């Protein structure tokens, strides 16, 4: 069959390669001397290498929620799961995700049915900021799509704090 090698299409191989790039971008770096700009560049590369695919396809976040991959959990309830980013961009960098993706791969994919969970994610960010002692301020970020530097297609809120944030951010 044309396009098949070892029973796998070139599209399937590309999807697996893209997922491996994203997975690797979320693993701890082997070198602790990497700068913030290097880690931001790798995030950008991971985002550009990843393309949104099947909305129901499992992501690394699904594996974290299911405890198949360890994480440093800071908050969990029946709808929301929050854990420390393994490649922090600030002293406090926490990812807040819905436990059920429900097709919500990114903010641009939100539908009316997602209204409640989107509000819950933001309110949870406020609760965690207080829990973390971010009384002087914090930043909430949602990356959307490849040009928005989204590398995992399971909507997530970044809670950043513990230092002076700069403007403009991007």
UniProtKB/TrEMBL annotation:
Gene3D superfamilies: HIT-like. GO terms for molecular function: adenylylsulfatase activity. CDD domains: PKCI_related. Signal peptide: none annotated. InterPro entries: Histidine_triad_CS, Histidine_triad_HIT, HIT-like, HIT-like_sf. A motif (Histidine triad motif) lies at residues 154-158. The active site is at 156 (tele-amp-histidine intermediate). It comes from the Eukaryota. Residues 60-170 form the HIT domain. Residues 27-51 are annotated as: Disordered. PANTHER family: HISTIDINE TRIAD HIT PROTEIN. This is 14 kDa zinc-binding protein.
